[in-house]
Amino acid sequence: RAKDRGKNNYQLFTPSMNQDAMHRLTMEYQIRQGLENNEFILYYQPRMDLALNKVVSSEALVRWQRDGNRLTMPGDFIPIAEESGLILPLGEWILKKAISQALAWQDQGLKGLKVSVNISSRQFQQKGLANMVAQTLTETGLDPRLLELEITETTMMMDLEKAQRVMEALGRMGVGFAVDDFGMGYSSLYYLKNLPIDCLKIDQSFIRDLSTDPNDTAIVDAIISLCRTLRIHSVAEGVETREQAKYLRQKGCEQIQGYLLGRPMPYHELREMVVNGIKPKL
Ligand code: C2E
Ligand code: MG
Ligand code: MG
Ligand code: MG
């Protein structure tokens, strides 16, 4: 690969190089530029507690404002950032930004509003992640209990000893852990019990056809009871309809996130939403 040949050697694109490889190289270069030029922004999607009927948290979701107003979605660059290692500087920027935003909310009268941040596999495996998070929390003064990190089952199971160390170190400080896209990966129930996990986010693919697909209904019911048994919070992702929300509440799911409450939005819109107490009537 061109980048392996040293900084000052540029390799020309050749017709033999397939389009995919070319796209990747271009993207890598642009992501690096984007970081330098501050082109990344965080949107926040509300998460509501069904018992309190209140927005209690929000998930930080990265977007890339490349040219003008067009937003590039994470699906189009996170995988390339992950493969190239650029996820490490990008991920650090995201964490720091989300932490400072959460801190700002506390000062703006949104006391107790939490933030949750997605951590990619490579970022989670990175040496020094726990220290970096701990140091950022100490420097900013954000209450660690207001920060939750989202990792997938696959990430967690990749290196269990490492996962245990990182999660316990940060867990002791008060940082929470959510298992993202739960049900899509392969996790051992044993580890759900033995790692410091605070919440399972039920993957949106199970929520989509909740009212019509009996398999989805059964899976969602099972995950909710599992959460109750293990004393882990349950969150349903991708909730778009009132029917889904009603069903989930009736089954004892604790929180929901999805377009029904709101799409990911700029920080000031989320703030307004929470201040005005806008919420759907369920
Ligand atoms: P995720 O963490 O599972 O995030 C949820 C995704 O579902 C978001 O897509 C969100 O916009 C979308 N979503 C939320 N509610 C609904 C709904 O009601 N219906 C439907 N159809 N979709 C809904 P987004 O923002 O495009 O992010 C996609 C994925 O990219 C995320 O999945 C996450 O894995 C990754 N990602 C996003 N931001 C970051 C980040 O800051 N760091 C890392 N490492 N990954 C990120
Ligand atoms: Mg997530
Ligand atoms: Mg998810
Ligand atoms: Mg995910």
UniProtKB/TrEMBL annotation:
It catalyses: 3',3'-c-di-GMP + H2O = 5'-phosphoguanylyl(3'->5')guanosine + H(+). Residues 24-278 form the EAL domain. One of its GO terms (molecular function) is kinase activity. It comes from the Bacteria. Transmembrane segments: none annotated. Keywords: Kinase, Transferase. GO terms for biological process: cellular response to nitric oxide. This is Histidine kinase. It comes from Dethiosulfatarculus sandiegensis. The chain holds residues 274 to 555 of 555 of the full protein.
